[in-house]
Amino acid sequence: PCISPAGAAAVAPPPPYRPMLSPYGRARGNRARPGREIVCLSGDLTRQCEIDLFAEEFPGRFIHAGMAEANMIGVAGALARSGLIPFVHTFGVFATRRPLDQIVNAVAYPCMPVRIVGFMPGVSSPGGPSHQAIEDVALMRALPGMTVIDVADATETTQAVTAIADLPGPVYLRLKRGEIPVIFPATHRFSLTQAQVLTGGAAASEAHPPAAVPESGLALIASGMMVAPALAAATTLRANGVATTVVNVPVIKPLDTETVLAVAATAEAVITAENHTIVGGLGSAVAETLAEAALTRPLTRIGLTDTFAEGAQTAPYLFTKYGLTTQHLINAAWSVLDRPGKPPPAPTLPADEGEYAPV
Questions:
Q1: 3-class SS at 196?
Q2: d(Cα 28, Cα 176) in Å, to the nearest integer?
């Protein structure tokens, strides 16, 4: 369960990282070329959701649905019934919370191959509660048959587009927009069935069988935008005597429970990290997995704690205010492991121009 997919890279270095601009938009166009079954819909956020490149190259397969997300989901369901594979694009909050009833009845219940792509997850949007998708994973995870994906970087974004194209049933893909960090090399392999165990800056590979999962003082399980701060926190924790295993969970549903349990079983404590409310998301999924397996480990969930976030001029301010920084992960580890003294300070990661560093 802790073996990465065949050919997967074993590299996940600590930040800062070089960014890639609009990896989803480029990948979307490349995946569309082989066949004409893929169509794209936009909820009046075409450029903001990186679909302008697709619209220019394939105008006959692009639908501008306007600011009518519920209707857009209904149209996507009808297109799927006719044999097409619709990709629906808008901000995550408008892709899930606003048209939830239509997603249930036109997509999830009939199990249509609609791919719902929600941008600006969690508090990556400084636009306040109306624009912050802090409960989108919980909503989509609750729907029967829905695959829920929260990728960590540009490499996984590119590969996920191909991976979900022919997947049966509906998919919710959660993406940051704009400049995306490149954490993993091109040889990395995104998997729909397996989480990646990152130990000592390297992912488990075929050379490391499941029994070789390292014993760890701490299992740090992260998804999406929290993978980069998890790697940064792990570097500091290891330097201060805390053996730390980082697990990247790009697919929250169906969760790779085997890997979660294998890593948690070797750890003194578990921390989950997500750019989302701690209710119903990755932290809840891990808690359910541990409870159902009767695996007793202290668990700390890092995320928004049953609160709406405020608006702000910058996203880093919000990550700091709501406890989603590298330092918060270090502090949580120090507390849950009951280490003496003050927790070590998070590393200062001054990113050069053109580099990405987590908060």
A1: strand
A2: 15
Strands (E), 108-164: 115-119, 147-150
Q: Which residue has the tokens 């704690």?
A: 305
CB 115 within 8 A of CB 87: yes
At 150, list the tokens: 């929260």
pLDDT in tens, 5-49: 333 334 577 788 999 988 998 887 665 555 669 999 999 888 788
What are the φ and ψ backbone dihedral angles of 160, each rounded to 5 degrees?
A: -65, -35
Find out whether 148 and 160 touch, Cβ atoms under 8 Å: no
Distances (CA, A) of 262 to 15, 215, 223, 253, 266: 26, 10, 18, 18, 7
Degrees to nearest 5, angle at CA 107 with 102 and 110? 120
DSSP letter, residue 22: -
What distances in angstroms separate CA 247 from CA 66, 73, 294, 344, one per listed residue?
Answer: 39, 33, 20, 22
SS3 at position 42: strand
Phi, psi of 273 (to 5 degrees): -135, 125
* pLDDT tens-place string over residues 146-196: 999 999 999 999 999 999 998 999 999 999 988 899 999 888 899 999 999
- Residue closest to 95 by CA, chosen among 109, 110, 115, 113: 115
Distance CA 77, CA 82 (A): 9
Query: Do the bridges between strand 251-253 and strand 202-203 make them parallel or antiparallel, or are there none, so unpaired?
Result: unpaired
Instruction: Copy the structure tokens of residue 330.
Output: 């270090």
Which two three-digit tokens encode residue 314? 């910058």
Q: Is the dihedral of CA 155, 157, 163, 166 positive or negative?
A: negative
Residue 267: its H or E element = strand 267-277
Q: Which three-class secondary structure state does DSSP give residue 127? A: strand
- Do 276 and 301 meet the contact criterion of CB atoms below 8 Å apart? no
pTM of the model: 0.91
202 has which bridge partners? 199
Residue 336 three-state SS: helix
Give per-residue pLDDT as tens, 318-348: 999 999 999 999 999 999 999 999 999 998 8
Distance separating alpha carbons of residues 259 and 2, to the nearest angstrom: 5
- Tell me phi and psi for residue 145, to 5 degrees: 80, 0
